[in-house]
Amino acid sequence: MTSLVKDPRTLSVPAGGRVLVVGPLRLGQADTAASRLAVTEVVRAVDDWGGPGVVVLAGDTFDLAAMEDPSVERILAVHTRLRSALDAFAQGDDHELVVLVGDTDRALGDDERLVAQVVKGLSARVVNAVELQFETGTGERIVRVEWYPSTPDNGAARAHVRAAVADGMAGIVASGTTSPELTTIGEGFYANPGSCAEVSVRVPARLGLPPVSAVERQLGFVELEAGAQLHVRLIHGASVVGGGLGRRLFARSSERPEGRPAVIATYPTGPDWPPAPASPLTRVRRARRWSAGFIALTGVVNLVSALTPPDNTRIQTLTDYLPLAVAQAAHVLVAIGGLSLLLLAGGIRRGQRLAWQAALSLLVVSAALHLAKGVDLEETFVALAAAAYLLVHRRAFRAPSQPASVRRALAVVAATDVLAVVTAVAAVEVFHHAHRRPALGHATLAVAERLVGITALGIAGRLGRFLTPSLVGVGVASVAAVGWIVFRPTVARRAAHGSELARARTVVRRYGGDTLAYFALRSDKHHFFVGESVVAYASFGSVCLVSPDPIGPATDREGAWTAFRQFADAHGWHVAVMGASEDWLPIYRRAGMHDVYVGDEAIVDCTRFSMEGGKSKGLRQAVNRVARNGYTVSFHDPAHVDASLRTALEALMAESRRGGVERGFSMTLGRMFDPEDRGLLLAVAANADGEPAAFCQYVPAPDIDGYSLDLMRRT
Fold first, then answer.
1. pLDDT range class, residue 549, cuts 50, 70, 90
2. Do the domain assignments include residue 606?
3. CA–CA gap between residue 529 and residue 551 (Å, rounded)
4. If 0-12 CB within 10 Å is exposed, 13-18 middle and 19+ buried, where does residue 697 land?
5. Kind of pairing, strands 262-267 and 526-530?
6. What is the pLDDT confidence band of residue 5, given thresholds at 50, 70 and 90?
7. Residue 642 sits in which domain range?
8. Do 138 and 18 reside in the same domain of the chain?
9. Residue 257, Cα to own-chain centre: how many angstroms?
10. Among the residues of 307-352, which ranges form H helices?
């Protein structure tokens, strides 16, 4: 008697074997255009099959829910090509056909009659899930294929897979939604074939309009292959068959191939599907770049406008309403505003809130000044357009300025300007003749206004001609000083020691196995913690340099990097990574970063290394020459060397070092003989007299079951 297998079916897939997971077919008693298209693709796939393999119909294969008297037999009688092709495949050598229970064919789960019809018509096994054991060159990889309860999107299934991958599974193929997906999750993957039927979808629209409803005819498969490693391919195609005028006018074009299905994503080396949306930080940084460009452009426009004579017709019209002195003062203020905008562009580029507030205010004031200095409508439009752009993207400017910088800038400017005013007033009072000496209040106002380029109050004689450019220069220098001090990048706090460094050691010991991981413990690096992960970094001006890659659980990588990018963004830093590994490149790229290939590291397997043969002749001669001269090598734990050896090695280090500290960042630990550094290896070469002549320090690299080179010194 046939029966539904409640537990997952376990199948072995030998090296070279393939598995094809077919998306929901939803076959009914009618032979429709959608079903004919899907049947054609499935038949073509199984007819061309070579070698051992498994075909999995991944749920919702039969639309039994739409039938008053559910019958698989009647459905298969309509789709005879599919029945014949699948039955022939299932009876082939080393072939298996598996049917999963979904929603529309849920009756298979408790109706023995329907199960018997599947077995008779297709020679298939009916199960709730199938566990595939792939034999690959890297060992056995386990993949589960199952029906996941229908949800609006794949988010819940993705979280379910993340937990399974953390437990050692290679990945899960889960049907249940109509959204095809192949996503790398930690060291594994999540795949969803989508559908092989007509489905209703929401298509993104152009011009910021809401999504448009449409009907898609989908063809979706997931193919898995056992080779040197496990390979997974998402094969999908879709064509829109309904949706009306709104879809044709406003729907965005699909990135998926139309017509016949094609490979749109691969694992482990290819791109994910769907493509990761642009990171919010990427959009924020783009807005900042454009804003900084607009600010700088407006600053240049201000300076050019201030240095250009006004139009005679416009200035005559203006003087009917305002004194000429107002237009002259506006000219000067526009020039100062232009210089200020140029200085603010750097703070805007870093997303500083204070720079945004200052720039927005200056742009509005500049627009008014352009009208006041000569009814310059063109320049006014430029300033207001830049202000509008800043206002629209206001959420991109949240990075703080350092409070200490603001206070320091105000103190410096106030002290400088007060000193300049006092000195200039004293000069006016001392060098004027008694009968021409201005009142103290008049002299103070005349001097103060010259700091901003205004000369409405006169200072008679040669002294006025000397003081005016000098005071304008002091004012410009004050503005520049404020811009440089207030809007410079936030300075990171001092590198942490004590408890934070101890916490970083714990993370590195648990998760840091690659050849650069131990260098995250340099004393001059800062450590950013999120969950069980740590990011080691240092800030240099506006650049935050990360090295090595973040360390922590593989399943937390995306979240850890996103959190760190937000942290760096809050400080106005541009993030760069030195010594990035290939495993991290997809995450960096999804974050909007660009990679530059520098080189590869060399790993020497000491158990297999040999100096025999012609290619090693030079090395062999060098080794023999050193041995003939009486050199020997000894190995030590640098945390426990005796005092005499330590003194000798410290002297050796100082011979070829410039300065009192060891330099480096990404591939140098920067210290020796620290008792907290456990598991390091120190190789010391001694001459014939037993005196140290050279040494190498290595840090642990568990992933290669060995060590990574740190410090090298010789006499």
1. very high
2. no
3. 10
4. buried
5. unpaired
6. low
7. 614-714
8. yes
9. 27
10. 312-319, 324-349
Q: What is residue 433's predicted lDDT score, i.e. its pLDDT?
A: 57
Residue 608 placed within a domain: no
Q: Which of 463, 486, 509 is the last residue of a domain?
A: 486
Q: Which of 396, 429, 446 is the last residue of a domain?
A: 396
**Cα–Cα distance, 536 to 522 (Å, whole number):** 9
Beta strand segments in 598-658, E: 632-636
Residues 662 and 564 in one domain: no
pLDDT category, 126, cuts 50, 70, 90?
very high
Residues whose CB falls within 8 Å of the CB of residue 460, separated by 6 or more in sequence, listed in order: 432, 436
Our count of domains for the chain comes to 5
Rounded to an integer, the average pLDDT of 313-333 is 73
Question: CB neighbours of 219 closer than 8 A, spacing ≥ 6?
Answer: 23, 37, 38, 41, 196, 235, 236, 237, 238, 260, 261
Whole-number pLDDT of residue 578: 92
Residue 344 near residue 302, CB atoms below 8 Å? no
Same domain, 392 and 409: no
The CATH number for 86's domain is: 3.60.21.10
Do residues 251 and 204 touch, judged by C-beta distance below 8 A?
yes
Helix extents (H) in 244-323: 244-250, 280-306, 312-319
Higher per-residue confidence, 597 vs 422: 597
Distance, CA of 12 to CA of 133 (rounded, Å): 5
* 273 domain residue, yes or no: no
Average pLDDT taken over every residue of the chain: 83
Same domain as 210, residue 105: yes
Whether 339 is in a domain gets the answer: yes
Q: Which range among 17-31, 260-274, 413-427 has the greatest average pLDDT? A: 17-31
Quote the CA–CA distance of 222 and 285 in Å, as a whole number. Answer: 36
pTM of the predicted structure, to 2 decimals: 0.59
State how far the alpha carbon of 458 is from the alpha carbons of 99, 306, 418, 438, 467, in Å. Answer: 96, 22, 20, 10, 11
401 pLDDT tier (thresholds 50, 70, 90) = low
DSSP string of 357-410, one letter each residue:
HHHHHHHHHHHHHHHHHH--HHHHHHHHHHHHHHHHTGGG--BPPPHHHHHHHH
Secondary structure tally for the chain: helices H, strands E: 19, 22
Question: Do 21 and 114 sit in the same domain of this protein?
Answer: yes
Q: Are residues 41 and 158 in the same domain?
A: yes
Q: Reply yes or no on whether the pLDDT at 215 is more than 60.
A: yes
pLDDT at 2: 43
How far from 678 is each of 606, 667, 675, 700, CA to CA, in Å? Answer: 22, 17, 7, 9
